[in-house]
């Protein structure tokens, strides 16, 4: 999993958000291994991109190629400041809880 935290100038947010679908499409088409991607605005106004890759190697390829893809570069150009970039391994993930009934003994 890739966790990228960054700042975007509020005046650029609309363009940043508008450029995202083309960026995701470009990465999906050119970098095998992208499984999911979520963009989160945190309470302090910073942004977090949560990206799930099929492997660490796919994540590293994605990072290396991102600046070479035109649509990705357009999106990245809206980022004012990179705060952190971390790669990690997911040990537990639960999805679809809204559809599940949870019972306790």
Structural description of this entry:
- With 105 residues, the protein is of the alpha+beta class.
- It has a single domain, classed as Alpha-Beta Plaits (2-Layer Sandwich), CATH 3.30.70.100.
- Helices cover 34% and strands 30% of the residues.
- Helix 1 packs antiparallel against helix 3.
- It is globular, with a radius of gyration of 15 Å.
Number of domains: 1
Under CATH, the topology can be stated as Alpha-Beta Plaits
**What are the secondary-structure elements, in order, as H or E?**
EHEEHHE
Query: Uncertain spans, ≥5 residues at pLDDT below 50?
Result: none
Structural class: alpha+beta
How large is the count of helical segments?
A: 3
Largest sheet: 4 strands, antiparallel
CATH architecture: 2-Layer Sandwich
Helix content: 25-40%
Distance between the termini: 33 Å
* Strand order in the sheet with the most strands: 2-3-1-4
Q: What is the global morphology?
A: globular
Tell me the total number of β-strands: 4
* Amount of beta strand: 25-35%
**CATH secondary-structure class:** Alpha Beta
- C-alpha-based Rg, rounded: 15 Å
Q: How would you state the average pLDDT, rounded?
A: 91
């Amino acid at each position: 999993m890739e966790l990228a935290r960054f700042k975007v100038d509020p005046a650029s947010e609309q363009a940043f958000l508008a450029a995202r679908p083309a960026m995701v499409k470009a990465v999906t088409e050119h970098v095998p291994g992208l499984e999911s991607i979520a963009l989160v605005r945190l309470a302090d106004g910073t942004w977090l991109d949560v990206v799930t890759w099929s492997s660490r190697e796919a994540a590293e390829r994605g990072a290396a190629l991102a600046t070479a893809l035109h649509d990705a570069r357009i999106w990245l150009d809206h980022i004012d400041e990179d705060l952190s970039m971390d790669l990690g391994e997911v040990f537990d993930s639960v999805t679809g809880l809204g559809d599940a009934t949870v019972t306790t003994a």
